[in-house]
UniProtKB/TrEMBL annotation:
<feature type="transmembrane region" description="Helical">
    <location>
        <begin position="130"/>
        <end position="148"/>
    </location>
</feature>
<feature type="transmembrane region" description="Helical">
    <location>
        <begin position="73"/>
        <end position="94"/>
    </location>
</feature>
<keyword id="KW-0813">Transport</keyword>
<feature type="transmembrane region" description="Helical">
    <location>
        <begin position="338"/>
        <end position="361"/>
    </location>
</feature>
<keyword id="KW-0812">Transmembrane</keyword>
<feature type="transmembrane region" description="Helical">
    <location>
        <begin position="231"/>
        <end position="253"/>
    </location>
</feature>
<dbReference type="Pfam" id="PF02447">
    <property type="entry name" value="GntP_permease"/>
</dbReference>
<keyword id="KW-0472">Membrane</keyword>
<feature type="transmembrane region" description="Helical">
    <location>
        <begin position="192"/>
        <end position="211"/>
    </location>
</feature>
<feature type="transmembrane region" description="Helical">
    <location>
        <begin position="35"/>
        <end position="53"/>
    </location>
</feature>
<keyword id="KW-1003">Cell membrane</keyword>
<feature type="transmembrane region" description="Helical">
    <location>
        <begin position="304"/>
        <end position="326"/>
    </location>
</feature>
<keyword id="KW-1133">Transmembrane helix</keyword>
<feature type="transmembrane region" description="Helical">
    <location>
        <begin position="427"/>
        <end position="448"/>
    </location>
</feature>
<dbReference type="InterPro" id="IPR003474">
    <property type="entry name" value="Glcn_transporter"/>
</dbReference>
<comment type="similarity">
    <text>Belongs to the GntP permease family.</text>
</comment>
<feature type="transmembrane region" description="Helical">
    <location>
        <begin position="12"/>
        <end position="28"/>
    </location>
</feature>
Amino acid sequence: MTAALTGGDLRLIGAALAGILLAVLMIVRGRLHPFIGLLCGAFTVGLLAGLPLPDIAKAVQKGVGDIIGGTGLVVALGLSLGAMLHLSGAAAALARAALGVTGVRAAPWATLGIAIVIGLPLFFETGLVLLLPIVVAAAEAMAGPEDADRDSARLRLIMPALAGLGVVHALVPPHPGPLLAVEALGANLGRTMLYGIIIAIPTAIIAGPLLARVTTRGVRLAPPVMGDHQLAIATPALSLSLLIVLLPVLLIATGELGQLLPGLTGSTALVAASNPVVALLVTNLLALPLLFGRRLREAAIQDAVWHETMGAAGAILLAIGAGGALKQVLVSAGLSDLLARVVLMYAISPLLLGWLVAVGIRLAAGSATVATITAVGVMPGVVASSGVSPELVVLAIGAGSVFFSHVNDPGFWLVKSYVGTSTADTFRTWSLLETTISVVGLVLVVALSHVI
């Protein structure tokens, strides 16, 4: 393979690897925030690839601006919606109601379904913080003192919830990561949602309830470090809570119907409402009165909602903005064109290539969203030259973006803190779960490519 690559190609590959390695060392060993590490990695890639410094700076600014201006709005609105569902007790009420109906035997399947539904409109960390304390409490109550392996029984309830959050994070719009990929690659949102759901359900079953039967044996749990905090207000009705959770999905799906039936009365408004920013903004505006009632104007409630939103948004937006900078520098240096040529020369599957690029960035940077941003940024040339379905490339990249969560992933430490596993057992349970989602997801994407 290397024989067909020019000296400039090898220099570009070396520059990309060196920049990513520097970012990893700064984040993991230097304990710096990913925002700083990724920015330094972006400048390193540009300098080693031979780009003039002013051009690198412009690429960095463009990359950050593109991501914050597009995906940043979706992330921020998703975080605010998550804060409302959390602080009002709506998500907790939904989870407890579902678990109360199913009982102990079907509880793992119930937590899987709850996580998929609640996780759809939310950023991964938001869904994790919102749902895990509820599931942990339910697992504590359901695993009675007579249970011979109480900790394993609790984990068999908790792990399916993590699987549900993980699959929607990787594969199903309107989650912010897949939405970003849809926009960047020009994929059809409706088809991506349909394909994503088809792949996500069996993937979640394998990575959740089935895998948990093996990975949870003998695991011992410490008391969770983190707990749940809510406002002292009346819990909203279950029907209203479910409506708020599903409304963004319904708006987007209805908008796709409006595109298919342009003569339908009000189809223009339906199509406009399917825009993810519009869908989430409408949901936020409805969530305030429906979840908080007359108390929505109280300063304490407003302060709590927006304080929780902004605290999470700052770190997330900085990290994904820096990921956008690294992506843009890689594109400006010519990596996208290089990958397109490699695919044509060696008949590499674009689906496998997109997955591998996302896996590499995921292992290096830790963030699934940063992995998605970087991978989709260098894949448009490949998609255009190969004629592969952009919807399937979106899903392949999404699957690769969650491969093997480890110490440079904030989600790894959130799971460890909320569940109470040791570091070694977090690798054994959570990291293996994410890897299973990634590999099974890729296999199903490839299988679907032979069907459609």
